[in-house]
């Protein structure tokens, strides 16, 4: 009986890495370390010509994007739609520790922003980073005052939002 139990535990431990990834707070590439450089590529460019962008360069690019967007609005706030409302937000900080490569030239970042309603909002940004250019493709309210509205789960190599 003990031998069967030990064999079962051993098999379970060996198979554990093959089990599906549970939902998590933010998407991450499986092999990505927090100090990894984020690549910038141009399709068809020779490998030797491709550039590297550091996380700080991407962070600075995102801060500039938010700042420029806010500067163009009448109230100098960054605006995000949420539940048929227009949230007016001020940047508090970019989570430099949560930048993630989603494959190819797609990346994820999240920022903390304070609303004019006094609430703290965690905003997720999906973006495309190409040589000298950062393009935000999606923004979403992820948390309000620390309470998540959704989490992330990788399915078939693609990150998807899942209910909390």
Concise summary:
With 164 residues, the chain is α+β, with helices and mostly antiparallel strands.
Descriptors for this entry?
164 residues; alpha+beta; 7-stranded antiparallel β-sheet; two-stranded antiparallel ribbon; 2 helices; 11 strands; globular; disordered N terminus
Explain what you see.
By secondary structure, the protein is α+β, with helices and mostly antiparallel strands. Helix content is 20%, strand content 44%. The protein contains two helices and eleven strands. Strands 3, 4, 5, 6, 7, 8 and 9 form a seven-stranded antiparallel β-sheet that branches. A hairpin with a 2-residue loop joins strand 8 (133-144) and strand 9. The longest helix is centred in the middle third of the chain and has 18 residues, at 55-72. The protein is globular, with a radius of gyration of 20 Å. It starts with a helix and ends with a strand. The relative contact order is 0.16.
| Classification by helices and strands | alpha+beta
The H/E string reads HEEHEEEEEEEEE
Count of distinct strands: 11
How many angstroms does the end-to-end distance come to? 40 Å
Helix content: 10-25%
The global form is globular
Low-confidence stretches: 2-21, 30-52
Note the total helix count.
2
Radius of gyration: 20 Å
Mean pLDDT across the residues is 75
Strand content: 35-45%
Largest beta-sheet details: 7 strands, antiparallel
């Amino acid at each position: 009986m003990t031998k069967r139990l030990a064999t079962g535990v051993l098999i379970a431990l060996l198979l554990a890495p093959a089990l599906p990834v549970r939902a998590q707070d933010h998407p991450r590439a499986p092999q990505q370390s927090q100090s990894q450089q984020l690549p910038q590529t141009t399709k068809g460019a020779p490998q030797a010509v491709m550039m590297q962008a550091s996380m700080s360069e991407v962070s600075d690019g995102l801060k500039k994007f938010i700042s420029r967007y806010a500067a163009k609005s009448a109230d100098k706030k960054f605006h995000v739609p949420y539940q048929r409302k227009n949230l007016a937000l001020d940047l508090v900080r970019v989570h430099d520790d949560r930048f993630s490569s989603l494959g190819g030239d797609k990346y994820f970042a999240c920022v903390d922003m304070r609303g004019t309603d006094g609430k703290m909002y965690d905003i997720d940004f999906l973006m495309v980073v190409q040589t000298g250019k950062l393009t935000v493709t999606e923004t979403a309210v992820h948390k309000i005052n620390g309470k998540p509205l959704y989490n992330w789960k990788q399915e078939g190599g693609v990150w998807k939002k899942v209910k909390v």
